Amino acid sequence: MSIPALTTAQMAEVDRLMIEEYGIMLIQMMENAGRNLAELARRMLDGQLAGRHIVVLCGAGNNGGGGMVAARHLHNRGANVEVKFVGGLARLKDVPAHQWRILQTMALAKNDDPDLGQADLIIDALIGYGLSGDPRGATAEWIVQANGSGRPILALDTPSGLDATSGAPGNPGIRARATLTLALPKTGLLKANARHFVGDLYLADIGVPPELY
């Protein structure tokens, strides 16, 4: 079956229609994304989560919220999860802030600086498809650390730093072992110059009705 791909602008319109026309709320989509991300992480670790060390790098946007959901599911299934929120907590939007409060209740939101070199898997949930320009500041620093750790990286939706429409890599940009993109592939993920950053590409259903597409 041929699967179409979306530009950044088209994906933003899908998100808008989901909420405004279909009444499918962001928190529902985020839960679906995070649960699927946790399942792919389990598969990348040969189906064994008990005692495995997973570091989840989260940004302040909705991509970060999906990473927080994944952290919760991975913890519930026996993994040793460290969550690193990158950026000021005041920048958290409403729904990711809700996810962060859940992690605080579960004592998963300690936000210490993890040793990435000791992780069995790093999850990149720093930047979503709406990136404009190169990553900066602390986000750029953690991208460099993740790439330099030598550990496998699983990216949510698009590797942080990659332009989701053109496939142009950012400086710096996450080099993922695998990427779990949401709803439909983004056009940039399919470009030849993006392959080194995307790795194996997987697609997750977040509940978008076919009529909406």
Write structural notes for this entry.
Helix content is 35%, strand content 15%. The protein has helices at 8-20, 26-44, 62-76, 94-105, 137-148, 195-198, and strands spanning 53-58, 80-85, 121-125, 153-156, 178-182, 200-204. It has a six-stranded parallel beta sheet with strand order 2-1-3-4-5-6, sandwiched between helices. Strand 5 (178-182), helix 6 (195-198) and strand 6 form a beta-alpha-beta unit. Helix 2 (26-44) crosses helix 3 and helix 3 (62-76) packs parallel to helix 4 (94-105). The longest helix has 19 residues, at 26-44. The two termini are 16 Å apart. The model has no long low-confidence stretch (mean pLDDT 96).
Strand content: 5-15%
Helix % is 25-40%
Report the C-alpha radius of gyration, rounded. Answer: 16 Å
Q: Unreliable stretches, pLDDT < 50, 5 or more residues?
A: none
Quaternary assembly: single chain
Lateral strand order in the biggest sheet:
2-1-3-4-5-6
Question: What's the helix-strand series?
Answer: HHEHEHEHEEHE
The helix/strand class is alpha/beta
- If helices are DSSP runs of H or I spanning 4 or more residues, what is the number of helices? 6
Looking at the structure, what is the overall shape? globular
What is this entry, summarized?
By secondary structure, the chain is α/β, with parallel strands linked by helices.
Task: List the keywords.
213 residues, alpha/beta, six-stranded parallel beta sheet, globular
List the helices and strands and how they pair.
Elements: H1 8-20, H2 26-44, E1 53-58, H3 62-76, E2 80-85, H4 94-105, E3 121-125, H5 137-148, E4 153-156, E5 178-182, H6 195-198, E6 200-204
Parallel strand pairs: 1-2, 1-3, 3-4, 4-5, 5-6
